[in-house]
Amino acid sequence: MLDTNVLMHDPTAIFRFEEHDIFIPMVVLEELDAGKKGLSEAARNVRQVSRFLDELMHNATKKQIDRGLPLPSSVPPNHGKRPPAGRLFFQTQLLESSLPAGLPGHGADNAILADTLALQRKYPAARITLVSKDINLRIKAATVGVQAEDYSSDKTIEDADLLVSGVQRLPANFWQKHGKGMESWQQQSRTFYRVRGPLIAEWRANQFVYDAGDNGLEAIVRRIEGDSAVLELVLDYRSERNNVWGVSARNREQNFALNLLMDPEIDFVTVLGPAGTGKTLLTLAAGLAQTLDHNRYSEIIMTRVTIPLGEDIGFLPGTEEEKMEPWMGALMDNLEVLTQSQSGGTWGRGATTDLLRHRIKIRSLNFMRGRTFLNRFIIIDEAQNLTPKQMKALVTRAGPGTKMICLGNIAQIDTPYLTETTTGLTYVVNRFHGWHYSGHITLVRGERSRLADYASEVL
């Protein structure tokens, strides 16, 4: 039994239940019809569901619909899952049921519960499961004896704790097991090592490894070639002479992040971390250095989802950039930090800020569809609030010479029905892991202030 919100969240949900039969009650079709108007993603998903159902019912007779429509295994792709082998049933007759007296009212949720109870009575040998993303409906279902589950096919991973960090600490006996026959060479002032051993099988391209011992090795895995791996020593951005636009790394993870952000060979970077770890500051500094100093990119484009923390302040006047201004406080705060070190007094800093803002464009997500960005440094802030579908629409905007950075904290999700395991940020981290032109790093240490660090721990 499918709830409306499952189909509104994932239009392909009807194809994701492998060998199980699917039942769609009439109240769900009514709710889908009511939600089809508008330009929101939920409305677009509803229209896509309607198209899928229309294709499945094409030329079907009443008898065939009563017997259940076979679900095709060809469309859409199931990402490695078994193809659907069940049938799709619609509510074609009135189901006689009555809810317990403890459930007052005649809302859509109660109607779905009543239909589920009726199916249980009609088919006692079958296992009836209500699938819904509504926690309250699942709680109500449990109280009346209906088995209810969350929709889990959209989960990229089973648990957020399994998400890769992008960093691996080398064990104490690493060199004993992997140092035999090691090769080393230098190329364009960079140092490379080729190592072999059992740990190589766990590594992926552009993953960082480090030895916390006296040697203090910090390297990035450049290539995996059979049973060997090529490591490259990372640049030390903690030293003042290697600072990026006046910003130096304050810890190991920030140093790794700057290595990814400054690498022209890496097209896609994801940076995770709680508030105050320096995600936006490091990314903005790397973008300015490569845009203004190295002329690698023509401009910086910054965007984010416009979800308010408290009450919505309503309509905002002005151009697209002016409407996005209140959401870009993080950009303004970090620009202030980056221009503090500029000489020339107040006037010089003001002129520098004006120059930087001319090269940094603020864009809304609403107008991204159909665009192609050439030679841009694109920053997607608060990416944990994007759905996998929105994330795909954004990443596929990148043209030749463009670098895309996704920043976020999966512990702070404001979008309804998104969780740590289903957010678009987790989706791209997991799917891009190991691709030669992408990198990921999780920042752990807060560097904002001692007050912010203590607050994040105790509050």
Describe this structure in words.
The protein starts with a helix and ends with a helix. Helix content is about 30%, strand content about 15%. About 0% of the residues have low confidence. By secondary structure, the protein is of the alpha/beta class. Strand 10 and strand 11 form a beta hairpin. It has three domains: about 150 residues, 3-Layer(aba) Sandwich (Rossmann fold); about 70 residues, Elongation Factor Tu (Ef-tu), domain 3; about 220 residues, P-loop containing nucleotide triphosphate hydrolases (Rossmann fold, 3-Layer(aba) Sandwich), CATH 3.40.50. Helix 8 runs parallel beside helix 9.
Briefly say what this structure is:
The chain is an alpha/beta fold. The chain has helices at 4-9, 26-34, 41-56, 62-67, 108-122, 135-143, 174-178, 252-261, 279-293, 320-324, 329-339, 345-359, 388-395, 424-432, 450-458; strands spanning 22-24, 69-70, 87-90, 129-131, 147-149, 167-169, 183-187, 190-196, 208-210, 218-225, 228-233, 268-272, 299-304, 360-362, 376-381, 403-408, 438-442.
Which terms summarize this structure?
Rossmann fold; 3 domains; single chain; 459 residues; elongated; six-stranded parallel beta sheet; Elongation Factor Tu (Ef-tu), domain 3; alpha/beta
Treating each run of at least 4 consecutive H or I residues as one helix, how many helices? 15
If you average the pLDDT, what whole number results? 86
What is the CATH first-level class name of the largest domain?
Alpha Beta
Structurally, the number of domains stands at: 3
Distance between the termini: 40 Å
Let me know the CATH homologous superfamily of the largest domain.
P-loop containing nucleotide triphosphate hydrolases
Structural class: alpha/beta
Strand content: 15-25%
Helix content: 25-40%
Assembly category? single chain
Q: Let me know the largest β-sheet.
A: 6 strands, mixed
Question: How many DSSP-defined strands?
Answer: 17
Q: What shape does the CA trace take?
A: elongated
CATH architecture of the largest domain: 3-Layer(aba) Sandwich
Poorly predicted spans: 308-313
Sheet with the most strands: spatial strand order = 6-9-10-11-8-7
Radius of gyration: 26 Å
